[in-house]
């Protein structure tokens, strides 16, 4: 299944998980985010953290998303993206 179709199918579940782990604004990035149609073995999500967010929140979200999509998932915050790439990644990120 194409990433765009998988994300669309699970849109509500992704938003519920993001809220459950005290995060916000889920976006898809990387090859799947660029055109939404690159098939691959992984998905990359960009989320905004909030005051008090912990690594357990980010890791918990990652595990839950991997179970939901059945593939490797990476969860990043804007601060996790190297500064020299941050503007490009943020501009290319596609809302879930």
From TrEMBL:
One of its GO terms (molecular function) is metal ion binding. SUPFAM superfamilies: Nucleotidyltransferase (SSF81301). Keywords: ATP-binding, Magnesium, Metal-binding, Nucleotide-binding, Nucleotidyltransferase, Transferase. InterPro entries: NT_sf (IPR043519), Type-VII_TA_antitoxin (IPR052038). Its cofactor is Mg(2+). It comes from the Bacteria. PANTHER family: BSL3053 PROTEIN, SSL8005 PROTEIN. This is Nucleotidyltransferase. It comes from Ferranicluibacter rubi. The lineage of its organism: Bacteria, Pseudomonadati, Pseudomonadota, Alphaproteobacteria, Hyphomicrobiales.
């Amino acid at each position: 299944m194409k990433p765009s179709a998988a994300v669309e199918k699970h849109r509500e579940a992704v938003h519920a998980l993001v809220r459950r782990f005290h995060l916000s604004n889920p976006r898809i990035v990387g090859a799947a985010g660029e055109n939404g149609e690159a098939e691959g073995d992984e998905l990359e999500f960009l989320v905004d953290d909030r005051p008090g967010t912990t690594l357990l929140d980010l890791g918990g979200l990652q595990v839950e998303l991997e179970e939901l999509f059945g593939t490797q998932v990476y969860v990043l915050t804007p601060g996790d993206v190297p500064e020299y790439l941050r503007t490009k990644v943020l501009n290319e990120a596609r809302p879930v």
